[in-house]
């Protein structure tokens, strides 16, 4: 792989300034090119990108198909046309492994908000309203059960935090091998059974053909009526219309959602107005150290590429 110039696409600014990453990588003996927004997303203005041998990016652009290597600053790679990249011989790597701490803490925050009624108190504060919960309204999460759907690096971060808070944890993944801190590991074919006694169903799976729409009406019917759905995966993993119906009918108690079928979430969505729904703007993995974590993966892969070694976190 030729690797003389590494580009940093402007789209990474959704998580950190491109210049910050360039500074983090300034110790490399390689040209670093911060690409401005003049690089077109339709492939017609690809000249700045094609002067690079590799790119670090959040979005996919048509011109990237001509590069040798693309690094996604996210763990998910559903933004990228994998078949086309594979046919073109483009290496694709991702940032899996860096999100577990932030995602785990965010999920723990959602659970604590629901159980300690913090989301209600915040709304009351905005209205300057002093309103204590009913005697049986607040509860503690210790001793409750969570089902973590997806036991990769994101799921591992969730398991560690919830276990530390006294939550009993089950899991779902393709191969039902034991996982530390997880009482029972189910396969996706056992999903409805896996969620049947869970107070919290936490989604941490990537969006693939197999996972798209996997949380549907049948899964909501299988969940207890006091259960909460937590989605820090991808919006497409959930049938959103079925979720809204389940919430409106009281089939489940509520949901904390960081991702949606359409983003930003349209103002007309019923999810905005539901009392037992927490909406966050796809930021569960945000941390001031995100750029440092991405830089560590990119730096290692630059070293590997120049040494002729296999890239870490390689998807294609």
From TrEMBL:
<dbReference type="InterPro" id="IPR029753">
    <property type="entry name" value="D-isomer_DH_CS"/>
</dbReference>
<feature type="domain" description="D-isomer specific 2-hydroxyacid dehydrogenase catalytic">
    <location>
        <begin position="60"/>
        <end position="315"/>
    </location>
</feature>
<dbReference type="InterPro" id="IPR054891">
    <property type="entry name" value="Dhydh_Halo"/>
</dbReference>
<dbReference type="InterPro" id="IPR006140">
    <property type="entry name" value="D-isomer_DH_NAD-bd"/>
</dbReference>
<dbReference type="InterPro" id="IPR006139">
    <property type="entry name" value="D-isomer_2_OHA_DH_cat_dom"/>
</dbReference>
<protein>
    <submittedName>
        <fullName>D-2-hydroxyacid dehydrogenase</fullName>
        <ecNumber>1.1.1.-</ecNumber>
    </submittedName>
</protein>
<feature type="domain" description="D-isomer specific 2-hydroxyacid dehydrogenase NAD-binding">
    <location>
        <begin position="109"/>
        <end position="284"/>
    </location>
</feature>
<comment type="similarity">
    <text>Belongs to the D-isomer specific 2-hydroxyacid dehydrogenase family.</text>
</comment>
<keyword id="KW-0560">Oxidoreductase</keyword>
<dbReference type="GO" id="GO:0016491">
    <property type="term" value="F:oxidoreductase activity"/>
</dbReference>
<keyword id="KW-0520">NAD</keyword>
<dbReference type="InterPro" id="IPR036291">
    <property type="entry name" value="NAD(P)-bd_dom_sf"/>
</dbReference>
<dbReference type="Pfam" id="PF00389">
    <property type="entry name" value="2-Hacid_dh"/>
</dbReference>
<dbReference type="Pfam" id="PF02826">
    <property type="entry name" value="2-Hacid_dh_C"/>
</dbReference>
């Amino acid at each position: 792989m030729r690797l003389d110039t590494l580009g940093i696409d402007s789209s990474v600014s959704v998580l950190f300034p491109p210049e910050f990453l360039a500074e983090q990588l300034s110790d490399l003996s390689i040209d670093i090119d911060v690409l401005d927004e003049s690089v077109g997303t339709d492939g017609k203005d690809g000249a700045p990108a094609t002067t690079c041998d590799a790119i670090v990016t959040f979005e996919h652009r048509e011109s990237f198909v001509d590069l040798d290597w693309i690094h996604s600053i996210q763990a998910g790679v559903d933004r990228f046309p994998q078949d086309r990249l594979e046919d073109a011989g483009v290496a694709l790597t991702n940032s899996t492994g860096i999100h577990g701490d932030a995602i785990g803490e965010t999920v723990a925050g959602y659970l604590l908000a629901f159980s300690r009624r913090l989301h209600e108190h915040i709304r009351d504060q905005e209205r300057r309203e002093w309103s204590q919960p009913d005697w049986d309204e607040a509860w503690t999460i210790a001793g409750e059960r969570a089902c973590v759907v997806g036991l990769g690096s994101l799921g591992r971060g969730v398991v560690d935090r919830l276990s530390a808070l006294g939550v009993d944890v089950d899991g779902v993944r393709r191969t039902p091998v034991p996982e530390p801190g997880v009482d029972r590991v189910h396969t996706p074919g056992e999903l409805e059974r896996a969620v049947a006694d869970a107070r919290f169903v936490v989604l941490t799976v990537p969006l693939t053909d197999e996972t798209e729409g996997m949380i549907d009406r049948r899964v909501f019917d299988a969940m207890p009526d006091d259960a909460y759905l937590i989605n820090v995966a991808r919006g497409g993993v959930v049938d959103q219309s079925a979720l809204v119906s389940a919430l409106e009918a009281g089939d489940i108690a509520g949901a904390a959602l960081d991702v949606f079928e359409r983003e930003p979430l349209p103002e007309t969505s019923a999810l905005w107005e539901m009392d037992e729904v927490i909406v966050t703007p796809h930021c569960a993995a945000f941390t001031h150290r995100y750029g440092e974590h991405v830089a560590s993966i990119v730096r290692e892969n630059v070293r590997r590429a120049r040494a002729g070694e296999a890239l870490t976190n390689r998807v294609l």
